[in-house]
Specification:
5 helices; mainly alpha
Length: 125
């Protein structure tokens, strides 16, 4: 268990550093009116988690430690959006359309409400 936590922690650290670096570079070279840095980090994170999970599904010889380090750790530190999208992909691929719609819709609405509530609590009181 400690080994797993250390692998996730190291991967998260590296993913977070990569997210900050890439997002900063992209944003400094684009229109500041749209969060292009975050957009591209999210898209690349989704591509990465898709590629990695495809590799793990296709090549059973890749270790569980490597999978945890790269997907939960690095991709999770790079962007949790990639995990969210992958979970939606799994529901769609298994024909669970109602679960997909509920999860995607509720996540968006609840996330926006939570951001608004947190912001309002700090700025209004």
């Amino acid at each position: 268990m400690l080994r797993t936590l250390l692998l996730i922690g190291l991967g998260s650290f590296l993913g977070g550093v990569a997210r900050y670096g890439l997002s900063s570079v992209v944003q400094s070279h684009t229109n500041m009116l749209f969060p292009w840095g975050t957009f591209w980090v999210n898209v690349l994170g989704c591509l990465a988690i898709g590629l990695l999970n495809g590799l793990f599904a296709r090549n059973g010889w890749l270790s569980t430690d490597l999978r945890i380090f790269l997907t939960v750790g690095f991709c999770g530190g790079f962007t949790t959006f990639s995990t969210f999208i992958y979970e939606n992909h799994l529901m769609l691929a298994s024909g669970r359309f109602l679960a997909f719609a509920a999860y995607a819709g509720l996540s968006l609405v609840a996330g926006l409400v939570a951001v608004y509530a947190g912001y309002a609590l700090v700025t209004r009181y």
